[in-house]
Amino acid sequence: MADTELRTDPAAPDFSGWSCPLPLRDHPRVVMGHGGGGAMSAELVENLFAPAFGGPALAGLGDSAVLELGGARLAFSTDSYVVRPLFFPGGCIGDLAVNGTVNDLAMSGARAAYLSCGFILEEGVELALVDRIARALGAAARTAGVEVATGDTKVVEAGHGDGVYLNTAGIGLVPAGVDIRPQRARPGDVVIVSGPIGLHGVAILSVREGLEFGVEVRSDCAALGGLVEAMLGATRDLHVLRDPTRGGLAAALNEIAAAAGVGVGLSERAVPVPDPVANACAVLGLDPMYIANEGKLVAFVPRAEADAVLAAMRAHPLGAEAVAIGECVEDHPGMVVARTGFGGTRVVDLPMGEQLPRIC
């Protein structure tokens, strides 16, 4: 059997009639869960922001919008970063701001070209700290092959911020013949993840809470543009790419399943969870599927192209541990179902809020 030929259990239960009561979400005020990348974030966007803004460009709700402008296809994305602490094993808020925006553009197949950068500084923060962050941001931009072309600085009163917040926006060109978006997921697509999950969230947690897991856990923060180019070199017919940041792999898969109206079947044992992440989650009662990543992607690839795409990914440093974890199915549309190591199945829901707030 080819290593991309994963099949879900044909005897899996019928989920079409399932329903699940949800906790009360009629909040009159913003709560932390609204920023967690899960169900509450989705409701905020779909029921408040999208109706207020309108417009077809926003309707796709991808990691970046793909726009036609002057005969070119541009990907455009923006993101804000409020991570705490500002420095963590494997990176800092500056690296995160560049890589996060570059990755959002890459998930449309675009090569990032230019970034904007806004610094929101709290009165009293040391300029030496701001300098360290700015230098890290500049170095990350050069590594990613992108230029910071414009920016802004604002200062808020002491006690009204958390040292440094960042906002970055980016633009890049989408190559001809590339159409990557969540709505293109099709039954039969192989689901591939580019490497071990959960490292960023656990790295943040370890330094924030002073926890020891027996080994230093480093964030996987990295720019994925080169990896995506390698994948496109194998085939232009990539259906979906997503970087599983807030809400982790579970949120990314649920969003794709809902957007395309398909089901996703996973082999839970195939999902690459490194030992430090598994140990930390076991101690803290967390699920690795919901832990944030900042240097991984999940891809939906036609079965005929999957082996070639996997080979291209494994030949790149950021995809050396890529693995097929499941497939897109006609059954249970809009739902993600995992086959457990014990032979049973479980529904992998969209998270309500966020297990670990302030991780990006």
From TrEMBL:
The protein, known as: Hydrogenase expression/formation protein HypE
Domain of life: Bacteria
Source lineage: Bacteria, Bacillati, Actinomycetota, Actinomycetes, Kitasatosporales
NCBIfam families reported for this sequence: hypE (TIGR02124)
Annotated organism of origin: Kitasatospora cathayae
InterPro entries (alphabetical): HypE, PurM-like_C_dom, PurM-like_C_sf, PurM-like_N, PurM-like_N_sf
Domain PurM-like N-terminal: 63-174
Domain PurM-like C-terminal per the UniProt entry, residue ranges: 186-332
Gene: hypE
Family under the similarity heading: Belongs to the HypE family.
CDD domains xref list: HypE
